[in-house]
Write a structure and sequence with these properties.
- It comes from Bradyrhizobium ivorense.
- This protein is α/β, with parallel strands linked by helices and 264 residues long.
- Helices cover 37% and strands 17% of the residues.
- The protein contains 9 helices and 9 strands.
- The strands form 2 sheets. It has a 6-stranded mixed sheet, with helices on both faces. Strands 2-1-4 form a 3-stranded antiparallel sheet, with helices on one face.
């Protein structure tokens, strides 16, 4: 039977409207990641806006949640696009385990997107560069055309490579999941990322789910900002986040703040 082609929808983002934990599908409540406090009393996350941003302390479960969502969206939990298998060997991910008990509601499910993980960026970029070169060499062998070695993400610096990658890959209709995209971005590059995010948002056909520690990214206008606390997700303003409060105190008196902090 011929595979049915999935056509782009004319509806606007968000496409993924809700994810929730089916407790009956949990194989072992005491096993990781189901033993995390965020999952102890059920888990239910709705999406009302095209951009959803999740904040919280390290170890709270942000990355695990994103990995689980990525898996049910059709991405490899290690990062990449649809149909792309992880090239990072030995990477510990728990999203695949979580996704087995996650359920999703789509309106509708979209056929494209990307899951960006900072720690696997270079492995994915290397894979894409080599794939592009191989494809062009094959084409050149048939047509005689000289290969154009693009996109060549690895010729950039770390932060520039991130931005080039985002510009190249985050244009089509789809769902885009970013796990701490600021990890290699200077403040100026974070502003570039925000401009890209605005273009994606204004297009009407990109849904973004992002985890970040960067107050500048948390302040994106119109986004749903959620704090992952010990026992659940709750709406929060940028000014209420611990990240913003710490940075505000630092900016008010950098030397005094650092001296007081390291002496505690």
């Amino acid at each position: 039977m011929a595979r049915r082609r999935i056509r782009p929808t004319t509806l606007s983002a968000p496409y993924l409207r809700r994810v929730w934990l089916d407790r009956a599908a949990i194989p072992d409540q005491d096993a990781y990641p189901f033993c995390l406090p965020i999952f102890s009393d059920g888990f239910d996350l709705g999406f009302e806006t095209a951009v959803t941003i999740i904040v919280g302390e390290n170890g709270a479960g942000k990355s695990t949640i994103l990995e689980g969502i990525a898996a049910i969206a059709g991405f490899d939990s290690g990062g990449g696009g649809k149909g792309h298998n992880s090239v990072e060997q030995g990477l510990e991910v728990t999203g695949a385990d979580l996704s087995s008990a996650l359920r999703a509601a789509w309106l509708p499910k979209v056929p494209y997107g990307w899951f960006f993980r900072a720690e696997t960026f270079f492995s994915v970029a290397r894979y894409l560069d080599r794939s592009a070169i191989a494809a062009q060499e094959d084409l050149g062998a048939v047509t005689g055309a000289a290969p154009q070695f693009a996109p060549d993400y690895l010729s950039f610096s770390h932060g520039e490579g991130f931005i080039a990658f985002f510009e190249e890959r985050c244009q089509k209709q789809g769902i885009y999941i970013f796990d701490e995209p600021e990890s290699a971005l200077s403040p100026a590059r974070q502003i570039e990322f925000l401009k890209l995010l605005r273009r994606m948002d204004q297009s009407g056909h990109c849904q973004v789910i992002m985890a970040t520690h960067a107050p500048m990214l948390m302040a994106y206008p119109g986004a749903t900002l959620l704090r992952l606390a010990k026992y659940g997700l709750e709406p929060i303003s940028v000014e209420q986040t611990d990240h913003y409060r710490v940075m505000r105190e630092f900016c008010a008196d950098p030397r005094g703040f650092i001296e007081a902090t390291i002496e505690e």
